[in-house]
Design brief:
By secondary structure, the protein is an alpha/beta fold. The chain is built from 14 helices and 9 strands. It folds into 3 domains: 3-161, Spore Coat Polysaccharide Biosynthesis Protein SpsA, Chain A (Alpha-Beta Complex); 167-255, Tetratricopeptide repeat domain (Serine Threonine Protein Phosphatase 5, Tetratricopeptide repeat), CATH 1.25.40.10; 272-355, Serine Threonine Protein Phosphatase 5, Tetratricopeptide repeat (Alpha Horseshoe). The protein is 49% helix and 16% strand. Helix 8 runs antiparallel to helix 9 (241-254) and helix 10 packs antiparallel against helix 11. It starts with a strand and ends with a helix.
Length: 355
């Protein structure tokens, strides 16, 4: 079965060739839709494919992505961003996935961001490959998505999202506000992401109003749990600690517990000097299953490093230095260059001769 790889691009000369080189052996057809590059991105794209199309930008990511899908001619269509990278082992997995087309209509792949040391920071799954004849359409001017239907397959193949330049901080917020100012309405998913953009831009009061309204909707439970944690942060920033705590606890009502929420509870008990309760919540955070196929965002630090380093401190305070050392070493196995881990290691060597 053949595969069209579809991209929308604007001013991505720093990363575009890197991405296209990854898919050269995977794609039977590469389609690049350029939304107004001024840096020569079109020339880079043309060195890989003759299917480069201009698209007049209209503040609508779905419109651009749908245009790219309309140009596809293969049996399968796959989307990528210019700053995505696919390791060779994952290219092989995707080549095998092409041959299994009769088994699925939509394939979800893992989407991963990493730090400078190549360690996973955030992991989640995205709808990535589609059977073209089913006419899937993108929806949403920002944070666009396709609603999956038919036979769904989850693959462990990974797409690495490797940005080399900062995002435009106000772009998404501006698009949402443009829609609202023209009398448009946001669907439930759009409301969630609008609230998130307000939060990222430090507009905490506005974020609180939008996400509180979102929580009363029939939105996806995982988004509601994430909204609760954003509301915790927003209310904390506004100095309303009582309301922040209410939203933190509400996150447990919306979806399975999140490691970050458990760590926050651990921090609150630690601050009160209740070490056994702090230990319980940190251990819970570290032990929670991380089901990436649930669709939830997995914050890798909070599902490993942070609860381990917190447990190190708690056990040291409780006088169990060997257990404290053990958890510090677990933290170091994840982030061996972290200053907290290295400081603790020096402490155990000097004070307790545990190295």
């Amino acid at each position: 079965m053949t595969l069209s790889v579809c991209m929308i691009v604007k001013d991505e000369r720093e990363v575009l060739a890197r991405c296209l080189e990854c898919v050269r052996s995977l794609a039977d057809e590469i389609i690049v839709v350029d939304t107004g590059s001024q840096d020569g991105s079109q020339d880079i794209a043309r060195s890989f494919t003759d299917k480069v199309y201009p698209f007049e930008w209209c503040d609508d990511f779905s419109a651009a992505r749908n245009f790219s899908f309309e140009k596809a001619t293969c049996g399968l269509v796959m989307w990528l961003d210019a700053d995505d990278v696919i390791a060779q082992e994952d290219v092989k997995k995707l080549c095998a996935l092409k041959e299994r087309m009769e088994e699925y209509d939509v394939a979800f792949l893992q989407y991963v961001t990493q730090d400078d040391d190549g360690r996973d920071v955030l992991r989640y799954v995205r709808e990535r490959i589609f059977r073209r004849c089913m006419g899937f359409k993108w929806k949403g001017a920002v944070h666009e998505a396709i609603e999956p239907r038919g036979r769904i397959l989850y693959s462990d193949a990974r797409i690495l999202h490797k940005k080399v330049k900062p995002a435009q901080p106000m772009r998404n917020l501006r698009i949402y506000q443009k829609i609202i100012s023209k009398g448009g309405t946001l669907d439930v998913r759009g409301m969630f992401y609008y609230g998130r953009e307000l939060f990222y831009n430090g507009m905490y009061a506005e974020c609180t109003a939008v996400l509180t309204r979102f929580l009363k909707s029939d939105g996806w439970s995982e988004n509601k749990a994430e909204a609760c944690l954003m509301l915790y942060d927003a209310c904390s920033a506004l100095g309303d600690n009582e309301e922040a705590t209410r939203f933190l606890l509400k996150s447990f009502e919306e979806a399975p517990p999140k490691s970050r929420a458990c760590c926050i509870l651990g921090d609150s008990f630690y601050a009160r000097g209740d070490l056994p309760s702090a230990e319980y919540w940190y251990r819970t955070a570290a032990a929670l299953p991380q089901d990436i196929n649930s669709g939830a965002f997995i914050d890798c630090d909070y599902s490993g490093f942070i609860p381990y380093i917190r447990l190190c401190v708690v056990y040291d305070r409780m006088g169990d230095h060997k257990k404290a050392f053990y958890y510090n070493e677990l933290a170091g196995s994840i982030k061996p260059k972290d200053e907290s881990y290295l400081y603790n290691k020096q402490y155990f060597m000097q004070r307790h001769r545990l190295i």
